[in-house]
Design a protein that fits this description.
It catalyses: L-seryl-[protein] + ATP = O-phospho-L-seryl-[protein] + ADP + H(+); L-threonyl-[protein] + ATP = O-phospho-L-threonyl-[protein] + ADP + H(+). Its EC number is 2.7.11.1. Keywords: ATP-binding, Kinase, Nucleotide-binding, Serine/threonine-protein kinase, Transferase. There is one protein chain. This protein is an alpha+beta fold. It has one domain: Phosphorylase Kinase, domain 1 (2-Layer Sandwich). Helices cover 34% and strands 27% of the residues. A 5-stranded antiparallel beta sheet has the order 1-2-3-5-4. Strand 1 and strand 2 form a beta hairpin. The chain is globular.
Length: 134
Amino acid sequence: MHYVCLTTSDPFLSLRQVRIYREKATGQVYAIKKLKKLEMLLRGQVEHVKAERNLLAMVDNNCIDKLYCLFKDEEYLYLITEYLPGGDMMTLLIRKDTLTEDEASFYIGETVLAIKSIHKHNYIHRYIDVILII
């Protein structure tokens, strides 16, 4: 498959980069998480990454990106996931500064539902990406 990079975001972890790609043949948009294997080893994150991979493959929730496939090369591990536009909660708070009571209630409810779907698979994750569908 051939992809065109649309944008790059820099999550708070230097361990991974997330890029948004559009498949040329179909126009389908994907997020590609690129994780540096050496950094995973040095930081003792291998088991955490495996747990994330397993969780993304299992959970069916509109607030959690779906894992389509993964592959690796000599230096990196790549997770091809569903692209969920909207950003994360930190981006929303930076953009809006303060949420209304209705907005806060909505996002708290979405967060609870996402965490509940994770817990149904017996996972408790230390780093939760809450994707906002705006």
